[in-house]
Amino acid sequence: MLLPTEQEIMQMTSQELTLLLYQGLLEKLQEAAQAIDTKNYDLANQRLQQCHDIIRRLGAGLNYETEKTAGIPLADRLEALYQYMAQQVLVANIEKKRAPIKETMTLLAMITDAWEQAMAKRQDDRPQIHVRKLSAYDAPDDR
């Protein structure tokens, strides 16, 4: 995964930052699973700790105020999913097993897909501004 520059990160929306965290989490989960497969338990431990940290950051970034205005308990649902994923990451780290990582990756893939769809819909719902450029020879339309 190509990491964005600090300037690019500063210009991202909170939704884009969340997507970036999802992508980073998926990458770390894959690395942890590979480390377990090769019995590199030190690396697996490091990656799973990073995963746990990312999940905690995702939970800390939840906005419970939007729930009140939108009428959808999305933050509560995401919090429950994040807690479950964090628990699975801990189980994977303690037992050094791949199954909890795979389950977490499956959940994360569904969340990421839904997040990307919501971001695309939000882009589609924005009003489009069309600016017609005139050449030096075109007269403006005075109708």
Which helices and strands appear, and what pairs or packs with what?
Layout: H1 6-11, H2 14-37, H3 41-60, H4 65-70, H5 74-95, H6 99-125
Helix pairs in contact: 2-3, 2-6, 3-5, 5-6
Describe the protein in words.
Belongs to the FliS family. Keywords: Bacterial flagellum biogenesis, Cell projection, Chaperone, Cilium, Cytoplasm, Flagellum. One of its GO terms (cellular component) is cytosol. The chain has 143 residues and is mostly helical. The chain has one domain (12-114): Four Helix Bundle (Hemerythrin (Met), subunit A). Helix content is 73%, strand content 0%. The protein has helices at residues 6-11, 14-37, 41-60, 65-70, 74-95, 99-125. The longest helix is centred in the last third of the chain and has 27 residues, at 99-125. The radius of gyration is 21 Å and the shape is globular. The model has no long low-confidence stretch (mean pLDDT 86).
